[in-house]
Amino acid sequence: MGVMIALFLTEICPQRLRKPIGIAIELLAGVPSIVYGIWGLFVFAPFLKSYVEPLIIGSLGKLPLVGGLFAGPAYGIGIFTSALILAIMVLPFITSISRDVFASVPPVLKEAGYGIGCTTWEVFGKIIYPYSRVGVVGACMLALGRALGETMAVTFVIGNSHKMPSSILGPGTTISASIANEFTEAEGDLYTASLIELALLLFVITLIVLTIARFMLARIEQKKA
Question: Which residue ranges form the domains of the chain, and what is each CATH number?
Answer without folding.
Answer: 2-224 (1.10.3720.10)
